[in-house]
Amino acid sequence: MTAGAVLAYSGLAYVGPGAGFAVAPLLWGLFIGLFILALVIAMPFLVVSRLFSRYVLGWRPPTGSARRVIVIGFDGLDPGLARRYMRRGLLPNFSRLAEEGSFSPLDISIPSISPSSWSTFMTGADASRHNIYDFLTRDPCTMNPVLSSAKIEEAKRVLPIGKFRIPLSRPVVKLLRKSKPFWKVLSENRIFSSIIRVPITFPPDRFKGVMLSGMCVPDLRGTQGTFSFFTTGAVEDVAEPGMGYGGDDCQGVVARVTREGDLVRGEITGPKNTVRDGAAEAKLGFTARVDDAGDGVRLYVAGQKLELPLRTFSPWIRLTFKLAPGVAAVGIVRFYLTSLDPEFGLYMTPIHIDPEKPSLPISHPLIYSVYLARRNGPFATLGLAEDTWALNERVLDEQAFLDQVWLNHEERERQLFTALETTRQGCVTVVFDTSDRIQHMFFRYLHRDHPANAGKDTTKHAGAIEEMYVRLDGLLGRAREKLKPDDALIVLSDHGFCSFKRGVNLNSWLHREGYLHLLPDRAESGDWLDGVDWARTKVFGLGLTGLFLNRRGREAEGIVDPGDEARALKREIIGKLMELRDPEGDRRVIRAMYDAEEVYDGPYRDDAPDLMIGYERGYRNSWEAAVGRVTADVITDNEKSWSGDHCVDPKVVPGVLFTDRQLPRTRPLPKMEDLAPTILALLGVAPPAYMTGASLFHEGDER
């Protein structure tokens, strides 16, 4: 697995094989077919049952001050930028909402990373109670990296028949997030919810409502997003000079194609075929014929013909990979023709799970994704659908990336308005990723001295972030037009943003300071701490948020005793890291350090990184540190297009909170933990005891 497989949001792939993913289509495909048939047969009975449930057993009408709570999440929306654009009159709908109700920075929890922050939003509790601290963590028994939020394992029981292995049980698809989200509490009180694309909801919860899963839904290959690029050129010629496509940090597959005259032939790599012995990757051929004008191709793939102009995204195309007689894995992709001369270049998105034929559970009930696709058309299902890594590698340029982002955004808008139309009471929550992805990839335009500007455009898309805020303002205005007098509206983000100019490899610093040791024959380590001498290593880093002690009794080869020795070691490291300075400009690197033993008191505190790093603006864990690599340099320039970030001290990147009701003036800064209790209280439900937040409004508050 490449280093790029787990880098930040768009590069994060499943750690360890998504074994059994390819066998899921057999079971889920049969289930969906039978479910639809049963639904048709049972429809009259379902109608009667629904009427009975509503009028006899009763969905309980909300008894709070709101009949319906609408929550719109804009991932990464920054309060500082929002204020700037509001002062300039660019965001009239946000300004009106702030004047009629309230606008405040939102105090986010530790750490300031999306999976943890959104988990806090939904559970009303900190990370030591929901157990999501990062995208990934380590398995203390093997020291291998594992995804924090979900586990997918192959079917345990199979029937071997010749060269085929027929599954007799379903693959294990398990959500690892702890605590109970607010929609399950509402469900227990017979209040309906529509939950769409909230991060860390894969696999989907079961509750009285509907859900479309968000962040961490895999692609059909079992990763968090592996794009494909087909070219007649040499690998080193794929990207712009000096940008280097295809290296160790790439989260894509480059495939050579052949060209004879105007005809191009290539092969698409699909999921591993675990139904067949050997589990080889399924393949699917395609041909492309260059048109006479030389400005597009006619693409033939999976029995379909597609006219594809240069630099234009195709509609969603269904790909069917045959795994065994009567068994297939189905996904959808978009194509983008990057060039025809001098070399042919064709980009293909990661293979998304087809919402009409889902190979894994991506919605609740299972039929909900089918319903949305039939109503609104096919849509992106990958948790990290905007292909930031393709832009990092310069396979896509900025305009192509923006085109892709806004296509996905329009799909999400349709899902929001569908939910507003069909959910008459209860809760509607929809999260948009657009704000996060554009700021990650275009923040360099706000800082002329950003290292990522070298060799790239700095003017053409300089307004991309401002334009994004303006477009989201328009969405907010259209959404408010759909609201009713007894609705309550909450708009929030999970964190803000700042520049990411310099990467810090704390594993390299730990190695230099003697806390982390390598095997005698190694000067540097490989990915995932390969080459680390665990018998002598006291501290190590993995992921984006913190450092772990190699603790006796917790890690398999732990050498640090818990208690006094561990506390003394943490104090020593905190003291040294707080003095760490960047030799370039003699700037302080770390603003704050957080000891998990002191900031958390929940039941999953022991699973947290022992020390959380609160970087100063401009700094973040380096790309190498995120995958547990030890390199020669501690602090290096970040030259990737991914130029903005938020994995810093949470005090530096608060989120935003807009509401259509006024917050009490005497109340302190609202916290992310307060959102779940607030939603419950607005609908007349008391928050459970495990929630550490409190409602933002006094009982009976009106507009």
Strand-helix topology:
Layout: H1 24-57, E1 68-74, H2 79-87, H3 92-100, E2 102-106, H4 114-123, H5 127-130, E3 136-138, E4 145-147, E5 150-153, E6 158-161, E7 164-167, E8 172-175, H6 182-188, E9 193-196, E10 209-212, E11 227-231, E12 252-256, E13 258-260, E14 263-272, E15 281-290, E16 296-301, E17 304-309, E18 317-324, E19 327-333, E20 335-339, E21 345-348, E22 352-353, E23 363-364, H7 367-376, H8 388-392, H9 398-422, E24 426-432, H10 434-442, H11 464-481, E25 487-492, E26 498-504, H12 506-513, E27 539-541, E28 546-549, H13 564-577, E29 581-582, E30 587-588, E31 590-595, H14 596-599, E32 611-615, E33 618-621, H15 623-626, E34 635-637, E35 644-645, E36 655-659, H16 675-682
Helix pairs in contact: 10-11
Radius of gyration: 25 Å
CATH class of the largest domain: Alpha Beta
The overall average pLDDT, rounded, is 89
What is the total tally of β strands?
A: 36
Number of helices: 16
Termini, distance in Å? Answer: 53 Å
CATH structural architecture of the largest domain: 3-Layer(aba) Sandwich
Biggest sheet, strands in spatial order?
A: 2-36-25-1-24-9-10-23
Major beta sheet summary: 8 strands, mixed
Give a brief outline of the structure.
The chain has 703 residues and is α+β, with helices and mostly antiparallel strands. The chain contains 16 helices and 36 strands.
